[in-house]
Structures are given as structure tokens and as C-alpha cells.
Specification:
alpha/beta; about 290 residues; 10 strands; globular
């Protein structure tokens, strides 16, 4: 299922020598105190156009250093139109990257199908989803979408936030729930899994269950304090591939972190993406030679 997507990802990862996935989380004033789209952009272009302008500039800046860019649906789909999303996806593809929508689909089949219709219309290559609704009449349409359209589907197993252990670590019939989720998703043919790089033991456990070929998307690098060295060692396959480490805020808002003027946000994002890529490659060489 979705073997073409995995193959294309690996080709781009090798071509760009990168396992970094850059997330697009364009926050604006009122959402939080820092890590914000520069307000002068909003003043100049308006809210929707300003956010889109920011995303397009970040895509162009970071594309040389990543095989995949991950727009976050919660930041974008309530604000932008379908045409705007298409423009963002087209920019990602023109920059020679794959487009993963971090949608976390989690509903009954008819609702998931409606979402997939528009996600497909926008041109996304892959999505994230929650397995909570179960398969029949729930996530079955997501698996069929991946199979029929050769897409990537990343099932949430163990998220990166501290509270994830409260539910995803519950012992069910003698083993943690995230293990059951990984095993069932692998049996159904999922080609992607989400395990935070803040959850190192869990990364290793999921890789052991799913084997060599599926991909693991591992968020939590940066402000969440993920451990990239341990994640690479335990989450990669035997070839040192298959692990995708995601970073959003520390790249998108590198101009803030580095204390630069807002006009340099794209330049700062490029430099931080390059630095992250090089750091991850150094850790890969240490782990796998």
C-alpha cells in the first residue's frame, strides 16, 4: 500500500541527503506570545494573504534541505481557501518536496471521506490520521485512499507531548495501547507511523514491530526537547533510513530565536534548516557509519 509514496520519499531523502521534515505552523497574534508570523506581513497583505506569503517564502527557503514539508491543517484550513492550499502544495512540489498534511483525521468513514476528497483536490501526497475510530466504518476509507491513489498515511501511535503517555501508554490486555495501534496499523498496511522523538523507547518498540520498510515520522525536535541522536539510533531501519524527524517552530521562527529583524525570516529559516539537516546527518554517520 502506497509503495510509490515511500519510494519517492526515499529517493528525495537520498538526493537531498536529508531526513528532516519541515513543518509549517503559521501562528499569528492572539494564538500565543512568541513564534509568530511577522506582523508587518499581516499588515501589508492582510491576514490570509500574509500567512500564505509567509508559508510560500518558508517553502522556498527550506526546500534544498528537506524531502518533505508538513503544513499543519489546524493552522491553515480554517483560514485559507482550497485555491490557497493548492498554491501551497504546488509550491512544495515545484521545490522538489513531498507535501504531507498534518490533518490527524479521526472520524467516521463518511466524514473522513469528505476530508480526503478536499485533501486530494489540494494535491497532498500524504496525511496523518488517528486510529481511534477503528477500521470498519472509520479509518477503512483512509487505507483505501492510500492504496488507490498511492498516498502516504501516517497513523498516530505515540505523540510527542508529555500527556501522551496518559492514554497512549495505557496497558490494554497486557501491553501499551500504542503497541496495539502500531501492530494493527502495520497489519492493515499503513506505510507511515507517528512516534515523537521525545518518546525514545517507544520509537524502538514501534520500529521492531513494523520492520524495515515503513516510515516513521518523529516530531518533537526543538522546543519540545526531543533527542535526535537516540531517535535516529532506535527509529531508523538497519540501513539508517526510514525515520523522518520533523521540526516546525525552531525553523519557521528562527528569526525570533536568533534575534534577527523580521525581514530576515526566510533567510533565518533556510540557515536553521540547513543546520538541522547537517546535525541529523552527523548523528546518522555516528550511528550507522
Amino acid at each position: 500500500m502506497g509503495k510509490g509514496f515511500v519510494k519517492r520519499y526515499l529517493e528525495l531523502s537520498r538526493e537531498k541527503e536529508s531526513i528532516l521534515c519541515v513543518g509549517l505552523d503559521p501562528a499569528v497574534r492572539g494564538m500565543r506570545e512568541r513564534y509568530l508570523v511577522p506582523h508587518p506581513l499581516i499588515e501589508r497583505y492582510g491576514l490570509g494573504e500574509g500567512v500564505k506569503h509567509f508559508c510560500l517564502d518558508i517553502i522556498e527557503a527550506v526546500a534544498p534541505y528537506t524531502p518533505m514539508i508538513k503544513p499543519n491543517a489546524q493552522y491553515l484550513t480554517y483560514l485559507l481557501s482550497l485555491e490557497d492550499l493548492k498554491e501551497i502544495v504546488e509550491a512544495i512540489h515545484e521545490a522538489n518536496c513531498l507535501a504531507l498534511l498534518d490533518a490527524k483525521l479521526s472520524d467516521i468513514a463518511s466524514t473522513n471521506q469528505a476530508a480526503l476528497h478536499w485533501i486530494g483536490a489540494a494535491g497532498f501526497d500524504a496525511i496523518t490520521f488517528s486510529p481511534y475510530p477503528g477500521y470498519e466504518g472509520g479509518c477503512d476509507v483512509i487505507y483505501r485512499w492510500a492504496e488507490e491513489r498511492d498516498k502516504g498515511i501516517f497513523t498516530l501511535c505515540r505523540m510527542s507531548n508529555p500527556g501522551a503517555r496518559e492514554i497512549q501508554g495505557l496497558i490494554v490486555e497486557g501491553e501499551p495501547l500504542y503497541i496495539k495501534v502500531a501492530r494493527e496499523a502495520h497489519r492493515r498496511g499503513a506505510n507511515g507511523f507517528v512516534v515523537g522523538c521525545t518518546a525514545i523507547e517507544e520509537l524502538g518498540a514501534v520500529r521492531e514491530i513494523i520492520g524495515e520498510e515503513p516510515l516513521i515520522l518523529s516530531p518533537g525536535l526543538g522546543p519540545q526537547g526531543g533527542d535526535p541522536a537516540a531517535a535516529i539510533k532506535l527509529g531508523s531501519n538497519s540501513r539508517g533510513e526510514g525515520l523522518i524527524i520533523a521540526s516546525s517552530r525552531s525553523i519557521d521562527y528562527a528569526y525570533e530565536v536568533r534575534g534577527l529583524s523580521w525581514e530576515r525570516y526566510a533567510e533565518a529559516a533556510a540557515r536553521e534548516a540547513e543546520r538541522r539537516r547537517d546535525e541529523l546527518n552527523r548523528l546518522r554517520r555516528q550511528a550507522f557509519g
